[in-house]
Amino acid sequence: MTRLRGAGSGRNEVHAELHAELHKDRMLQAMGEVRGYLRPPGAEPNEGASGASKASKASKASKASKASMGPSDRVAALDGVVRAFGLSPFETRLLVLAAAVELDGEFPALCGAAQGDPRHGFPTFGLALATLPDPHWSALAPSAPLRFWKLIELRSRGSLHHEALVACPIQIDERVLHHLLGVSTLDERLQPLLHPWYSIRGLASRQRESVHRVVGVWTAGTAANGGGSVAAVQLHGPDAAACREVAGRAGEARGAALHILSADDIPGRAEERETFCRLWQRERALEGRTLLVDAFHLRGEEGPAQVADLVRRLGPGTLVMAREPLSLHGVESVRVEVPTPSPGEQEAQWGEVLGEGGVGLNGGVRRVTHHFRMGLDGMRSVGARLQAERHATGGTVPEGALWDACRAQARPRLDDLAHRIEPQAGWDHLVLPRAQREVLQQMAAGVAQRVGVHEGWGFGGGGGRGSGITALFVGASGTGKTLAAEVVAGEVGLDLYRIDLSQVVSKYIGETEKNLSRVFDAAEEGGAILLFDEADALFGKRSEVRDSHDRYANIEVSYLLQRMEAYQGLAILTTNLRGALDSAFLRRIRYLVHFPFPGRAERTEIWRRVFPPEAPTEGLDPERLGRLTAAGGNIRNIALNGAFLAAAANEPIRMGHLLQAARAEYAKLEKPLLQGEVDGWS
Q1: Is the pTM of this model over 0.70?
Q2: Based on the domain organization, do 242 and 212 belong to the same domain?
Q3: Neighbour-count burial of 145, counting CB atoms closer than 10 A to its CB (0-12 exposed, 13-18 middle, 19+ buried)
């Protein structure tokens, strides 16, 4: 431990560590006072050559330091601790004594001499009661400031016999010692759980208003309660990075550094949470820090309850961030929304991230802004990806790089929620009546041109409602609904995700809405097309409320309708039975495409197109194959399985291979294969 007294390089090292002369000088002054109380009997009670000299020099230096500082900076760390924790004069001197033993090599000898045993070169409560003025026994109580806030600790000497409290060595907490010297550091017991906030800048004007509101809540609470905020503040919105930035800037506004605790790292046991809270409250009192609990990716059913318990223990001034406000039962909180920037504000953010070179990427930033609702973290990840690509290609970025980077950014989140389909089919793969094909082409044009129509032509409206596109594909299984979605996704250059409803619908109340929220939020960030396959399982007619199950099922449908109405992207829903869908849902559908079961002419055309040009065939008769009453999906299965049979026999694909595959396909469907439909296949 660095000593305060002594000369030469040791003293210079201390100077290098100290943040301000004021803290050091105040400690020297206080230590000089305590030194006088520890002097052997017969010496002057409060002074001595050494003690008087040190105290006098420290007092003069302290006055000089104060004179050179502004009025708001004239509080030494020791005086700040006394005020923050309400220490009495006796408790203050006891704390200084514990610090002096660590900082000044003379104090262990003074302690040993005062206790009549040179081996006892440490402070004890008994020594303090005997030598320091205005002593009081209550200073030793666990609820008293010194022990409650862990400013000091009572240490055991390891003896086998019972050791009285007044004889236990007293040791100052290392974090407190550093603070008294003006060294700012975070308690090492908190460091594994917390990470400091670093500004990423780039807040939109609407989000900067959220900063002012948080500061206003704190200011109002301070005025009403004489120093403490009245409530925890919950920041909520779709962008985690923006919420962190708002919290950090609000902390800056009141001179409080922000530290972030992930909700998943909240100690699980109540006693561990209590220790964490005690240490954090001490940090807040020492240095005015602010804590942000990040509940954006809160997992587990006990998560919200643990957050509420933590906030309750921490008291006023804590910040919580989540996508949606949490129910903090029994905790007074104020909710502050961190809104999504307007398209114009997002365009400015993209410009800041990408620089001048971003304007020309893939048609400019505007198109990207309206297709990908990305947060600040996502934008910066995309910018870093493009920067790396510039270095790899010698300063040039391929056309479409910005668009592709945005698509890739949200994939990790979406891949955990849905199945990604790589668009490979084109318009030539679709065999549909002209009317249905034209509707699909209108959909693709709507996605591709919505920026110009909504923004340039003023059709965007307000609040983001109605700017997305919702389509319903109705038809029997295998009639081309999924294939059509793939074609549209490929045409507009967006990812297609099929939603597995079994992974979305939950038997637990409220979980289905959370799952749907995660899907829609991730899809909007990545500009993805959502395909709710066999959607009547989730979008069925809302029932009359007969029990609580019906009531919550209706809530799920209502939530889904609201999200679809506000969704910025393209949502494609497929169903076998149009009549099973809710009428309120149908009113929100922009495009409805009926996929008829293919007639013989359509089936013949599908057979002509199903085999790739490079596939070896021999003697195939599309007209004869078209007599088989099968949907397009079944035809593709038969063609593929027939190809495997031919490859296994090292032969070109023949009618006989397709006959074997057709029998297997119909057996799978538990349907009879009529002989009249396969005559001449062998």
Answers
A1: yes
A2: yes
A3: buried
